[in-house]
Amino acid sequence: LVWLLVLSLAWLGPALGGEDKDEELIEEEEKEKEEDEVLSDEIKEEDNVLVLHEHNFSRALSEHQLLLVEFYAPWCGHCQRLAPAFAQAATELRNGSSPARLGKVDATAQTALATEFGITSYPTLKLFRDGNRTHPLEYTGHMDSQGILRWMQRRAGPSATLLQDTDTITAFINSQDLVAIGFFKDLKGEAAQAFFEVAAEMVDLTFGVAEAPELFQAYGLSDDTVCLFKKFDERQTNFPVDPARGLDTAELRRLLRVHSLQLVMEFTNETSNQIFSAKIPHHMLLFLKKSSPEQLSLRDSFRAAAGDFRGEVRWPHERDTEGGFGTPQPQCPLFPAQVLFVVVDVTGHGADVLPFFGMTAADAPTMRLVKMKNNRKYQMEQDNFSDSAIRTFIQAVLDGKVKPHLLSAEPPEDWDTQPVKVLVGKTFEQVAFDETKNVFVKFYAPWCPHCQAMAAAWEELAERYKDREDIVIAKMDSTANELENITIHGYPTLHYFPAGPGRKMVEYKGTRDVETFSKFLENGGTLPEEPP
Protein backbone atom coordinates (compact mmCIF):
# COMPACT_ATOMS: atom_id res chain seq x y z
CA LEU A 1 0.00 0.00 0.00
CA VAL A 2 2.84 2.33 0.84
CA TRP A 3 4.46 1.58 -2.48
CA LEU A 4 1.19 2.17 -4.30
CA LEU A 5 0.83 5.51 -2.52
CA VAL A 6 4.39 6.52 -3.40
CA LEU A 7 3.97 5.46 -7.01
CA SER A 8 0.67 7.34 -7.24
CA LEU A 9 2.24 10.53 -5.91
CA ALA A 10 5.22 10.10 -8.20
CA TRP A 11 2.88 9.74 -11.16
CA LEU A 12 0.41 12.51 -10.21
CA GLY A 13 3.02 15.05 -9.00
CA PRO A 14 4.40 16.10 -12.39
CA ALA A 15 0.87 16.29 -13.79
CA LEU A 16 -0.27 18.58 -10.99
CA GLY A 17 2.90 20.63 -11.23
CA GLY A 18 2.47 20.88 -14.99
CA GLU A 19 -1.04 22.21 -14.46
CA ASP A 20 0.33 25.00 -12.22
CA LYS A 21 2.95 25.79 -14.81
CA ASP A 22 0.27 25.99 -17.52
CA GLU A 23 -1.69 28.52 -15.45
CA GLU A 24 1.45 30.55 -14.79
CA LEU A 25 2.30 30.41 -18.48
CA ILE A 26 -1.17 31.65 -19.45
CA GLU A 27 -0.97 34.53 -16.94
CA GLU A 28 2.49 35.46 -18.23
CA GLU A 29 1.29 35.39 -21.83
CA GLU A 30 -1.70 37.61 -20.95
CA LYS A 31 0.62 40.04 -19.13
CA GLU A 32 2.94 40.17 -22.15
CA LYS A 33 -0.07 40.73 -24.39
CA GLU A 34 -1.22 43.65 -22.23
CA GLU A 35 2.29 45.10 -22.29
CA ASP A 36 2.38 44.75 -26.07
CA GLU A 37 -0.89 46.66 -26.28
CA VAL A 38 0.47 49.46 -24.05
CA LEU A 39 3.74 49.63 -25.99
CA SER A 40 1.93 49.87 -29.32
CA ASP A 41 2.04 53.18 -31.20
CA GLU A 42 -1.56 52.72 -32.29
CA ILE A 43 -3.57 55.93 -31.82
CA LYS A 44 -7.05 55.47 -30.40
CA GLU A 45 -9.73 58.15 -30.26
CA GLU A 46 -12.37 59.18 -27.76
CA ASP A 47 -15.01 61.61 -29.09
CA ASN A 48 -12.63 62.50 -31.96
CA VAL A 49 -9.86 63.39 -29.48
CA LEU A 50 -6.61 61.44 -29.96
CA VAL A 51 -5.66 59.46 -26.84
CA LEU A 52 -1.90 59.90 -26.55
CA HIS A 53 0.84 58.31 -24.46
CA GLU A 54 4.62 58.13 -24.61
CA HIS A 55 4.60 55.28 -27.18
CA ASN A 56 2.32 56.91 -29.78
CA PHE A 57 3.12 60.59 -29.19
CA SER A 58 5.85 60.79 -31.85
CA ARG A 59 3.59 59.11 -34.38
CA ALA A 60 0.81 61.61 -33.68
CA LEU A 61 3.20 64.51 -34.22
CA SER A 62 4.42 63.08 -37.52
CA GLU A 63 0.89 62.43 -38.83
CA HIS A 64 -0.73 65.76 -37.92
CA GLN A 65 0.53 69.15 -39.07
CA LEU A 66 -1.20 70.97 -36.20
CA LEU A 67 -1.86 69.12 -32.96
CA LEU A 68 -3.28 70.79 -29.86
CA VAL A 69 -2.66 68.56 -26.84
CA GLU A 70 -4.41 68.84 -23.50
CA PHE A 71 -2.35 67.57 -20.57
CA TYR A 72 -4.91 66.71 -17.89
CA ALA A 73 -5.47 64.96 -14.59
CA PRO A 74 -8.54 62.66 -14.29
CA TRP A 75 -9.45 64.13 -10.86
CA CYS A 76 -9.12 67.79 -11.95
CA GLY A 77 -12.46 69.64 -11.92
CA HIS A 78 -11.30 72.19 -14.51
CA CYS A 79 -10.30 69.34 -16.84
CA GLN A 80 -13.66 67.64 -16.37
CA ARG A 81 -15.50 70.87 -17.23
CA LEU A 82 -13.31 71.42 -20.31
CA ALA A 83 -13.78 67.87 -21.66
CA PRO A 84 -17.16 68.38 -23.46
CA ALA A 85 -16.00 71.64 -25.09
CA PHE A 86 -12.68 70.07 -26.10
CA ALA A 87 -14.50 67.11 -27.66
CA GLN A 88 -16.93 69.39 -29.51
CA ALA A 89 -14.08 71.45 -30.98
CA ALA A 90 -12.28 68.23 -31.97
CA THR A 91 -15.40 66.99 -33.76
CA GLU A 92 -15.92 70.24 -35.67
CA LEU A 93 -12.28 70.35 -36.75
CA ARG A 94 -12.42 66.76 -38.00
CA ASN A 95 -15.74 67.18 -39.78
CA GLY A 96 -14.43 70.32 -41.45
CA SER A 97 -11.45 68.42 -42.92
CA SER A 98 -9.04 70.71 -41.08
CA PRO A 99 -5.34 69.78 -40.85
CA ALA A 100 -5.63 70.57 -37.14
CA ARG A 101 -6.45 67.85 -34.61
CA LEU A 102 -6.87 67.69 -30.85
CA GLY A 103 -5.28 65.16 -28.52
CA LYS A 104 -5.07 64.49 -24.80
CA VAL A 105 -2.51 63.07 -22.39
CA ASP A 106 -3.22 61.85 -18.87
CA ALA A 107 -0.26 63.65 -17.29
CA THR A 108 -0.63 61.73 -14.02
CA ALA A 109 -0.03 58.42 -15.84
CA GLN A 110 2.32 59.60 -18.58
CA THR A 111 4.85 61.20 -16.27
CA ALA A 112 7.67 61.12 -18.82
CA LEU A 113 5.67 63.34 -21.20
CA ALA A 114 4.56 65.60 -18.34
CA THR A 115 8.19 66.09 -17.31
CA GLU A 116 9.37 66.64 -20.87
CA PHE A 117 6.89 69.44 -21.47
CA GLY A 118 7.08 71.02 -18.02
CA ILE A 119 3.48 70.34 -16.99
CA THR A 120 2.87 71.77 -13.51
CA SER A 121 -0.87 72.53 -13.58
CA TYR A 122 -4.03 71.14 -15.17
CA PRO A 123 -5.29 71.51 -17.74
CA THR A 124 -2.30 72.73 -19.80
CA LEU A 125 -2.78 73.01 -23.56
CA LYS A 126 0.13 73.08 -26.00
CA LEU A 127 0.18 73.34 -29.80
CA PHE A 128 2.67 71.22 -31.77
CA ARG A 129 3.30 72.33 -35.35
CA ASP A 130 4.89 70.32 -38.19
CA GLY A 131 6.11 67.60 -35.84
CA ASN A 132 8.27 70.01 -33.82
CA ARG A 133 8.54 68.49 -30.38
CA THR A 134 10.99 70.93 -28.80
CA HIS A 135 9.13 74.25 -29.08
CA PRO A 136 5.37 73.79 -28.57
CA LEU A 137 3.25 76.93 -28.42
CA GLU A 138 1.22 77.71 -25.30
CA TYR A 139 -2.53 77.92 -25.87
CA THR A 140 -3.81 81.44 -25.21
CA GLY A 141 -7.43 81.27 -26.35
CA HIS A 142 -10.70 80.95 -24.46
CA MET A 143 -11.45 77.67 -22.69
CA ASP A 144 -14.65 76.91 -24.61
CA SER A 145 -15.38 75.04 -27.83
CA GLN A 146 -15.70 78.12 -30.05
CA GLY A 147 -12.61 79.71 -28.55
CA ILE A 148 -10.56 76.56 -29.20
CA LEU A 149 -12.04 76.26 -32.70
CA ARG A 150 -11.25 79.88 -33.66
CA TRP A 151 -7.75 79.64 -32.19
CA MET A 152 -6.96 76.52 -34.19
CA GLN A 153 -8.59 77.71 -37.40
CA ARG A 154 -6.59 80.95 -37.26
CA ARG A 155 -3.39 78.87 -37.11
CA ALA A 156 -4.47 76.34 -39.72
CA GLY A 157 -5.40 78.86 -42.40
CA PRO A 158 -4.15 82.33 -43.33
CA SER A 159 -4.29 84.46 -40.19
CA ALA A 160 -5.05 87.56 -42.27
CA THR A 161 -7.15 88.00 -45.44
CA LEU A 162 -5.29 89.32 -48.49
CA LEU A 163 -7.00 92.49 -49.75
CA GLN A 164 -6.11 93.34 -53.35
CA ASP A 165 -8.29 96.27 -54.44
CA THR A 166 -10.30 99.20 -53.07
CA ASP A 167 -13.68 97.46 -53.41
CA THR A 168 -12.45 94.42 -51.45
CA ILE A 169 -10.82 96.47 -48.70
CA THR A 170 -13.88 98.74 -48.34
CA ALA A 171 -16.19 95.74 -48.00
CA PHE A 172 -13.77 94.16 -45.50
CA ILE A 173 -13.70 97.29 -43.31
CA ASN A 174 -17.50 97.61 -43.41
CA SER A 175 -18.04 93.93 -42.55
CA GLN A 176 -17.08 94.32 -38.87
CA ASP A 177 -17.21 96.94 -36.13
CA LEU A 178 -13.47 96.53 -35.76
CA VAL A 179 -10.77 95.27 -38.15
CA ALA A 180 -6.99 95.50 -38.25
CA ILE A 181 -5.23 95.80 -41.61
CA GLY A 182 -1.49 95.59 -42.14
CA PHE A 183 -0.16 97.60 -45.08
CA PHE A 184 3.22 96.13 -46.07
CA LYS A 185 5.30 96.66 -49.19
CA ASP A 186 6.77 93.18 -48.80
CA LEU A 187 4.44 90.50 -47.45
CA LYS A 188 7.38 88.14 -47.00
CA GLY A 189 9.37 90.64 -44.97
CA GLU A 190 9.97 90.47 -41.22
CA ALA A 191 7.41 93.14 -40.33
CA ALA A 192 4.65 91.36 -42.25
CA GLN A 193 5.57 88.01 -40.69
CA ALA A 194 5.39 89.59 -37.23
CA PHE A 195 1.93 90.94 -38.14
CA PHE A 196 0.77 87.46 -39.20
CA GLU A 197 2.01 86.12 -35.86
CA VAL A 198 -0.06 88.71 -33.97
CA ALA A 199 -3.08 87.93 -36.19
CA ALA A 200 -2.80 84.24 -35.33
CA GLU A 201 -2.74 85.08 -31.62
CA MET A 202 -5.59 87.62 -31.39
CA VAL A 203 -8.47 85.46 -32.57
CA ASP A 204 -11.17 87.87 -31.34
CA LEU A 205 -10.06 90.50 -33.88
CA THR A 206 -10.39 90.21 -37.69
CA PHE A 207 -7.17 90.85 -39.64
CA GLY A 208 -6.47 91.77 -43.24
CA VAL A 209 -3.30 92.55 -45.15
CA ALA A 210 -2.55 94.67 -48.21
CA GLU A 211 0.52 95.41 -50.38
CA ALA A 212 -0.90 97.13 -53.47
CA PRO A 213 0.54 100.70 -53.88
CA GLU A 214 -2.89 102.11 -54.73
CA LEU A 215 -4.23 100.90 -51.36
CA PHE A 216 -1.40 102.68 -49.52
CA GLN A 217 -2.36 105.82 -51.42
CA ALA A 218 -6.09 105.38 -50.77
CA TYR A 219 -5.53 105.49 -47.00
CA GLY A 220 -2.88 108.19 -46.97
CA LEU A 221 0.05 105.89 -46.18
CA SER A 222 3.59 105.98 -47.52
CA ASP A 223 5.33 103.38 -45.30
CA ASP A 224 4.49 100.05 -43.67
CA THR A 225 1.65 100.69 -41.20
CA VAL A 226 -0.85 98.72 -39.17
CA CYS A 227 -4.27 100.41 -39.19
CA LEU A 228 -7.17 99.77 -36.84
CA PHE A 229 -10.54 100.62 -38.43
CA LYS A 230 -13.54 101.14 -36.14
CA LYS A 231 -17.19 102.08 -36.36
CA PHE A 232 -16.89 104.12 -33.14
CA ASP A 233 -14.73 106.94 -31.74
CA GLU A 234 -11.93 107.85 -34.16
CA ARG A 235 -12.55 105.80 -37.29
CA GLN A 236 -8.93 104.98 -38.08
CA THR A 237 -5.90 104.63 -35.78
CA ASN A 238 -2.48 104.17 -37.41
CA PHE A 239 0.51 102.35 -35.92
CA PRO A 240 3.49 103.14 -38.20
CA VAL A 241 6.26 100.52 -38.37
CA ASP A 242 9.77 101.77 -37.65
CA PRO A 243 11.75 100.71 -40.76
CA ALA A 244 14.96 100.32 -38.73
CA ARG A 245 13.58 98.35 -35.79
CA GLY A 246 10.67 96.52 -37.34
CA LEU A 247 7.44 95.45 -35.66
CA ASP A 248 7.37 94.57 -31.95
CA THR A 249 4.70 91.85 -31.62
CA ALA A 250 4.11 92.30 -27.88
CA GLU A 251 3.69 96.05 -28.23
CA LEU A 252 1.42 95.72 -31.27
CA ARG A 253 -0.83 93.35 -29.30
CA ARG A 254 -0.95 95.87 -26.45
CA LEU A 255 -1.79 98.78 -28.74
CA LEU A 256 -4.50 96.83 -30.55
CA ARG A 257 -6.11 95.76 -27.27
CA VAL A 258 -6.08 99.29 -25.88
CA HIS A 259 -7.40 101.00 -29.01
CA SER A 260 -9.99 98.28 -29.69
CA LEU A 261 -11.90 99.52 -26.65
CA GLN A 262 -14.27 102.43 -26.82
CA LEU A 263 -12.92 105.66 -25.35
CA VAL A 264 -15.52 105.31 -22.58
CA MET A 265 -16.68 101.78 -21.77
CA GLU A 266 -19.87 100.81 -19.99
CA PHE A 267 -19.43 98.04 -17.41
CA THR A 268 -21.77 95.22 -18.45
CA ASN A 269 -21.73 91.45 -18.44
CA GLU A 270 -20.65 91.54 -22.11
CA THR A 271 -17.83 94.09 -21.71
CA SER A 272 -16.32 93.04 -18.37
CA ASN A 273 -13.91 90.55 -19.96
CA GLN A 274 -12.74 93.16 -22.49
CA ILE A 275 -12.18 95.71 -19.73
CA PHE A 276 -9.98 93.48 -17.61
CA SER A 277 -8.17 91.58 -20.38
CA ALA A 278 -6.92 94.84 -21.95
CA LYS A 279 -4.49 95.15 -19.00
CA ILE A 280 -4.70 98.93 -18.86
CA PRO A 281 -2.90 99.99 -15.64
CA HIS A 282 -5.47 102.51 -14.36
CA HIS A 283 -9.27 102.50 -14.44
CA MET A 284 -11.26 105.71 -13.88
CA LEU A 285 -14.82 104.81 -12.85
CA LEU A 286 -17.91 106.98 -12.93
CA PHE A 287 -20.64 105.49 -10.72
CA LEU A 288 -24.11 106.74 -11.60
CA LYS A 289 -27.76 105.81 -11.88
CA LYS A 290 -28.69 105.52 -15.55
CA SER A 291 -32.30 106.16 -14.62
CA SER A 292 -31.35 109.70 -13.52
CA PRO A 293 -31.06 112.16 -16.47
CA GLU A 294 -29.04 114.55 -14.28
CA GLN A 295 -26.46 111.89 -13.41
CA LEU A 296 -26.44 110.55 -16.96
CA SER A 297 -25.37 113.99 -18.23
CA LEU A 298 -22.06 113.59 -16.35
CA ARG A 299 -20.93 111.25 -19.11
CA ASP A 300 -20.23 114.25 -21.37
CA SER A 301 -17.51 115.75 -19.16
CA PHE A 302 -16.23 112.26 -18.35
CA ARG A 303 -15.79 111.55 -22.06
CA ALA A 304 -14.18 114.95 -22.70
CA ALA A 305 -11.44 114.10 -20.16
CA ALA A 306 -10.89 110.57 -21.43
CA GLY A 307 -9.00 111.41 -24.62
CA ASP A 308 -6.06 112.93 -22.72
CA PHE A 309 -5.29 109.68 -20.88
CA ARG A 310 -5.66 107.03 -23.54
CA GLY A 311 -1.90 106.88 -24.11
CA GLU A 312 0.14 107.78 -27.15
CA VAL A 313 0.65 105.48 -30.11
CA ARG A 314 4.39 105.05 -29.58
CA TRP A 315 6.76 102.11 -29.64
CA PRO A 316 9.12 101.30 -26.73
CA HIS A 317 12.19 102.55 -28.63
CA GLU A 318 10.68 105.96 -29.43
CA ARG A 319 12.28 108.28 -26.88
CA ASP A 320 12.49 112.01 -26.54
CA THR A 321 16.03 113.35 -26.62
CA GLU A 322 15.70 115.59 -23.57
CA GLY A 323 13.93 114.27 -20.48
CA GLY A 324 10.21 113.56 -20.73
CA PHE A 325 9.31 110.25 -22.28
CA GLY A 326 12.93 109.34 -22.93
CA THR A 327 13.98 109.62 -19.27
CA PRO A 328 12.38 106.80 -17.29
CA GLN A 329 11.55 108.11 -13.82
CA PRO A 330 8.80 107.25 -11.31
CA GLN A 331 6.68 110.13 -12.63
CA CYS A 332 7.77 109.56 -16.24
CA PRO A 333 7.24 105.89 -17.19
CA LEU A 334 8.57 104.25 -20.32
CA PHE A 335 5.02 104.03 -21.69
CA PRO A 336 2.68 106.99 -21.13
CA ALA A 337 0.29 106.19 -18.27
CA GLN A 338 -2.98 104.93 -19.69
CA VAL A 339 -6.34 105.25 -18.05
CA LEU A 340 -9.45 103.37 -19.11
CA PHE A 341 -12.67 105.31 -18.49
CA VAL A 342 -15.62 103.16 -17.41
CA VAL A 343 -19.22 104.07 -16.59
CA VAL A 344 -20.80 101.87 -13.90
CA ASP A 345 -24.57 101.77 -13.46
CA VAL A 346 -25.08 101.24 -9.71
CA THR A 347 -28.61 99.92 -10.25
CA GLY A 348 -27.60 97.55 -13.08
CA HIS A 349 -24.68 95.18 -13.60
CA GLY A 350 -22.47 97.48 -11.53
CA ALA A 351 -24.42 96.78 -8.34
CA ASP A 352 -22.33 93.62 -7.85
CA VAL A 353 -19.04 95.54 -7.60
CA LEU A 354 -20.17 98.16 -5.06
CA PRO A 355 -19.04 96.15 -1.99
CA PHE A 356 -15.50 96.05 -3.41
CA PHE A 357 -15.46 99.85 -3.13
CA GLY A 358 -17.30 99.97 0.19
CA MET A 359 -20.15 101.78 -1.53
CA THR A 360 -23.91 101.61 -1.89
CA ALA A 361 -26.14 102.87 -4.70
CA ALA A 362 -26.89 105.95 -2.58
CA ASP A 363 -23.27 107.11 -3.01
CA ALA A 364 -23.80 107.81 -6.73
CA PRO A 365 -22.76 109.93 -8.48
CA THR A 366 -19.12 109.51 -7.50
CA MET A 367 -15.78 108.71 -9.09
CA ARG A 368 -12.90 106.39 -8.21
CA LEU A 369 -9.55 105.77 -9.86
CA VAL A 370 -8.14 102.26 -9.40
CA LYS A 371 -4.51 101.22 -9.82
CA MET A 372 -4.90 97.71 -11.16
CA LYS A 373 -1.53 96.32 -10.03
CA ASN A 374 -2.44 96.63 -6.34
CA ASN A 375 -6.17 97.53 -6.34
CA ARG A 376 -5.46 100.88 -4.66
CA LYS A 377 -8.53 103.09 -4.92
CA TYR A 378 -8.54 106.90 -5.04
CA GLN A 379 -11.68 108.92 -4.40
CA MET A 380 -12.46 112.17 -6.17
CA GLU A 381 -13.66 114.21 -3.21
CA GLN A 382 -14.92 117.38 -4.86
CA ASP A 383 -18.45 117.75 -6.18
CA ASN A 384 -17.21 119.47 -9.34
CA PHE A 385 -17.20 116.82 -12.04
CA SER A 386 -16.14 119.06 -14.92
CA ASP A 387 -13.71 117.64 -17.48
CA SER A 388 -10.92 119.93 -16.20
CA ALA A 389 -11.51 118.81 -12.59
CA ILE A 390 -11.39 115.16 -13.69
CA ARG A 391 -8.11 115.74 -15.56
CA THR A 392 -6.59 117.50 -12.55
CA PHE A 393 -7.60 114.69 -10.19
CA ILE A 394 -6.24 111.91 -12.41
CA GLN A 395 -2.92 113.69 -12.97
CA ALA A 396 -2.56 114.28 -9.23
CA VAL A 397 -3.04 110.54 -8.57
CA LEU A 398 -0.54 109.59 -11.28
CA ASP A 399 1.97 112.06 -9.79
CA GLY A 400 1.59 110.49 -6.35
CA LYS A 401 -0.03 113.55 -4.78
CA VAL A 402 -3.23 111.81 -3.63
CA LYS A 403 -3.46 109.23 -0.85
CA PRO A 404 -5.47 106.08 -1.52
CA HIS A 405 -8.98 105.79 -0.12
CA LEU A 406 -8.75 102.81 2.25
CA LEU A 407 -11.73 100.78 3.38
CA SER A 408 -12.17 100.14 7.09
CA ALA A 409 -14.98 98.57 9.04
CA GLU A 410 -15.78 99.87 12.51
CA PRO A 411 -14.02 97.89 15.27
CA PRO A 412 -16.38 95.56 17.16
CA GLU A 413 -16.86 96.48 20.83
CA ASP A 414 -15.54 93.07 21.91
CA TRP A 415 -12.65 93.00 19.39
CA ASP A 416 -10.03 92.11 22.05
CA THR A 417 -12.09 90.08 24.53
CA GLN A 418 -11.75 86.75 22.68
CA PRO A 419 -8.55 84.71 22.13
CA VAL A 420 -8.54 85.75 18.43
CA LYS A 421 -8.36 89.57 18.26
CA VAL A 422 -10.49 91.15 15.53
CA LEU A 423 -8.63 93.87 13.62
CA VAL A 424 -9.96 96.47 11.18
CA GLY A 425 -8.17 99.01 9.03
CA LYS A 426 -8.43 101.71 11.72
CA THR A 427 -6.93 99.57 14.49
CA PHE A 428 -4.44 97.47 12.56
CA GLU A 429 -1.29 99.57 13.10
CA GLN A 430 -1.73 100.03 16.84
CA VAL A 431 -1.93 96.25 17.31
CA ALA A 432 0.31 94.79 14.60
CA PHE A 433 3.06 97.39 15.03
CA ASP A 434 3.20 97.19 18.84
CA GLU A 435 6.92 96.60 19.48
CA THR A 436 6.22 94.72 22.72
CA LYS A 437 4.15 92.01 21.00
CA ASN A 438 4.69 89.21 18.51
CA VAL A 439 1.56 89.50 16.36
CA PHE A 440 0.35 86.71 14.05
CA VAL A 441 -2.43 87.91 11.71
CA LYS A 442 -4.75 85.97 9.42
CA PHE A 443 -6.04 88.04 6.47
CA TYR A 444 -9.16 86.31 5.20
CA ALA A 445 -12.36 86.58 3.17
CA PRO A 446 -15.63 85.41 4.75
CA TRP A 447 -16.62 83.50 1.61
CA CYS A 448 -13.24 81.74 1.17
CA PRO A 449 -13.50 77.93 1.71
CA HIS A 450 -9.77 77.67 2.56
CA CYS A 451 -10.25 80.30 5.27
CA GLN A 452 -13.28 78.46 6.60
CA ALA A 453 -11.33 75.18 6.66
CA MET A 454 -8.54 76.63 8.84
CA ALA A 455 -10.81 78.70 11.13
CA ALA A 456 -10.93 76.02 13.86
CA ALA A 457 -7.13 75.62 13.86
CA TRP A 458 -6.71 79.41 14.22
CA GLU A 459 -9.11 79.49 17.17
CA GLU A 460 -7.29 76.58 18.82
CA LEU A 461 -3.94 78.32 18.32
CA ALA A 462 -5.29 81.49 19.96
CA GLU A 463 -6.67 79.47 22.85
CA ARG A 464 -3.24 77.89 23.33
CA TYR A 465 -1.49 81.28 23.58
CA LYS A 466 -4.21 83.39 25.20
CA ASP A 467 -2.21 83.70 28.45
CA ARG A 468 1.01 84.74 26.71
CA GLU A 469 1.28 88.54 27.01
CA ASP A 470 3.96 88.71 24.29
CA ILE A 471 1.92 86.87 21.61
CA VAL A 472 -1.23 88.10 19.87
CA ILE A 473 -3.27 85.94 17.47
CA ALA A 474 -5.48 88.13 15.27
CA LYS A 475 -7.57 88.17 12.11
CA MET A 476 -8.76 90.79 9.64
CA ASP A 477 -11.47 90.61 6.99
CA SER A 478 -9.57 91.89 3.94
CA THR A 479 -12.71 92.32 1.88
CA ALA A 480 -13.87 95.10 4.23
CA ASN A 481 -10.51 96.53 5.31
CA GLU A 482 -7.50 97.80 3.38
CA LEU A 483 -3.97 98.78 4.42
CA GLU A 484 -1.76 101.35 2.74
CA ASN A 485 1.50 99.37 2.76
CA ILE A 486 0.28 95.78 2.74
CA THR A 487 -1.50 94.32 -0.28
CA ILE A 488 -3.29 90.99 0.09
CA HIS A 489 -3.35 88.97 -3.14
CA GLY A 490 -5.00 85.75 -1.95
CA TYR A 491 -6.88 84.18 0.95
CA PRO A 492 -5.95 83.22 3.53
CA THR A 493 -2.67 85.17 3.86
CA LEU A 494 -0.78 84.87 7.16
CA HIS A 495 1.70 87.53 8.27
CA TYR A 496 3.84 87.55 11.42
CA PHE A 497 4.99 90.83 12.98
CA PRO A 498 7.83 90.14 15.47
CA ALA A 499 8.38 92.25 18.57
CA GLY A 500 11.19 94.79 18.78
CA PRO A 501 12.26 97.92 16.90
CA GLY A 502 12.94 97.83 13.17
CA ARG A 503 11.00 94.62 12.82
CA LYS A 504 10.15 93.18 9.43
CA MET A 505 6.93 91.44 8.47
CA VAL A 506 7.28 87.71 7.77
CA GLU A 507 4.86 85.83 5.52
CA TYR A 508 3.97 82.37 6.84
CA LYS A 509 4.09 79.71 4.11
CA GLY A 510 3.97 76.50 6.15
CA THR A 511 1.25 73.92 6.72
CA ARG A 512 -1.97 75.33 8.16
CA ASP A 513 -2.34 73.27 11.31
CA VAL A 514 -2.02 74.09 15.01
CA GLU A 515 1.20 72.20 15.65
CA THR A 516 3.06 73.81 12.74
CA PHE A 517 1.73 77.26 13.67
CA SER A 518 2.97 76.66 17.22
CA LYS A 519 6.45 75.59 16.06
CA PHE A 520 6.61 78.76 13.96
CA LEU A 521 5.76 80.98 16.94
CA GLU A 522 8.07 79.19 19.37
CA ASN A 523 10.92 79.48 16.87
CA GLY A 524 10.59 83.26 16.58
CA GLY A 525 8.78 83.48 13.27
CA THR A 526 10.59 80.77 11.32
CA LEU A 527 9.91 77.08 10.92
CA PRO A 528 12.65 74.83 12.40
CA GLU A 529 14.49 72.74 9.82
CA GLU A 530 13.21 69.20 9.76
CA PRO A 531 15.76 66.35 9.72
CA PRO A 532 16.22 64.72 6.28
From TrEMBL:
Establish whether keyword Repeat is in the entry: yes
GO cellular component labels: endoplasmic reticulum lumen
Pfam families assigned to the protein according to its UniProt record, in alphabetical order? Thioredoxin (PF00085), Thioredoxin_6 (PF13848)
Enzymatic reactions: Catalyzes the rearrangement of -S-S- bonds in proteins
Q: Which UniProt keywords apply?
A: Chaperone, Disulfide bond, Endoplasmic reticulum, Isomerase, Redox-active center, Repeat, Signal
Q: Give GO BP annotations, semicolon-separated.
A: protein folding; response to endoplasmic reticulum stress
- Source species, domain of life: Eukaryota
Where in or outside the cell it occurs: the entry states:
Endoplasmic reticulum lumen
Q: Which GO terms describe its molecular function?
A: protein disulfide isomerase activity
The family line of this record is: Belongs to the protein disulfide isomerase family.
Q: What is this protein called?
A: protein disulfide-isomerase
